Amino acid sequence: MTATDPATISPMRSEKVLHKIVETSRAGVIVVGRDTRISVANAAAQIAFSRQGEPIENKRLSEVIRDLSLHEAYQRALTEGVSTDLRLDYTAGHRSKYDVHVSPIELDETVGAIGFFYDTTRIERLETVRQEFLSNISHELRTPLTAIITFVETLEDGGIDDDENKMHFLSVIRRNAERMHSLIADILELSMIESGNVSVNIRDIKPAHIVNEVFSSLASKAEGREVSLINQIPDNAVIFADSVRFEQMITNLVDNAIKFNRRGGTVTVAYEQRGQKDVVSVKDTGEGIMPDHLLRIFERFYRTDRARSRDLGGTGLGLAIVKHLAKLHGGEALVESEMTRGTTFFIEFPTR
């Protein structure tokens, strides 16, 4: 019998070999014996299923993962020699999803069962985001497109001869076409930012001057809602940012603050230095945002009040663009809100 003959490998050496093999797997691997105690678990399984960092080896499988279908799969492998594929939702401390393959394994004439746990959490989350994005974008495009088609048909059916209303019909068509154009432009913009195809020309800029220009461009909208615009940034304040992108972020935030403000309210833009960060804030005096919405406010198409948002216009992508542009500067976009007292958005820029 040669030195490499499997029969010459001691049980202890066989277990070491198995340990080395399973450690090469990116998937979590758990091996149990007939007593359903875990005899081998690689680092990926330890990280995924350990509670407070305690070793999971030598524990019963039921102590580590409480899932009936998983235990049944291991039992079938141990008693019937049958392989099983299943889905596992693991919710101890954090929610994760796994594709699991359990098979019988024989080591040193000892029967066991081995399970491979493939973490699909991120893939499924991305798929959910993709489906939500497609659903939202189809809805957002369909709404103005339906209005355009409806009013075009009205004009074709004789409305073109209605001198009193035809200009109104054309105005509605134009407004909805512009809405579609804005939506497509924002989608392309966000896509370019996320794909890394947008660069920033960061230099010293004076934000007070740019904020005044933004106020001028949005003055008529603010007057229409009787909202006062207040620039509290000192004229000599300097931040390290891309002037074009800074103007884009402030425009999105001030535009939102006007739309969701109460009549007679105010929008205040301010500046402060916090440690190694320059912080520009945009504060409104609107109704505020409920706490459960704050966690998702920067998501694409996320709206706290869809009906009101659609009536007031906007693409639902403005805050997502602000968030991505802030990160592109090496900074962050944050929000604080108090019900009935208003909302404040913050853009943090690293100091030079």
Provide a compact summary of the structure:
With 352 residues, the chain is of the alpha+beta class. It is 45% helix and 23% strand. The radius of gyration is 30 Å and the shape is elongated.
Give a quick account of the main beta sheet: strands, pairing sense, barrel closure. Answer: 5 strands, antiparallel
Count of individual helical segments:
12
- As for the number of domains, it is 3
Topology-level CATH name of the largest domain: Heat Shock Protein 90
Topology as a string of helices (H) and strands (E): HEEHHHEEEHHEHHEEHEEHHHEE
Overview of the structural elements:
- The protein is an alpha+beta fold and 352 residues long.
- The protein folds into three domains: 6-119, PAS domain (Beta-Lactamase, 2-Layer Sandwich); 121-198, Signal transduction histidine kinase, dimerisation/phosphotransfer (DHp) domain (Helix Hairpins); 200-352, Heat Shock Protein 90 (2-Layer Sandwich), CATH 3.30.565.10.
- Helices cover 45% and strands 23% of the residues.
- The protein has twelve helices and twelve strands.
- The strands form three sheets. The protein has a five-stranded antiparallel sheet, with helices on both faces. The protein has a five-stranded mixed sheet with strand order 7-9-10-12-11. A two-stranded antiparallel ribbon has the order 6-8.
- A hairpin with a 2-residue loop joins strand 4 and strand 5.
- It starts with 10 loop residues before the first helix and ends with a strand.
- The model is unreliable at 1-11 (pLDDT under 50).
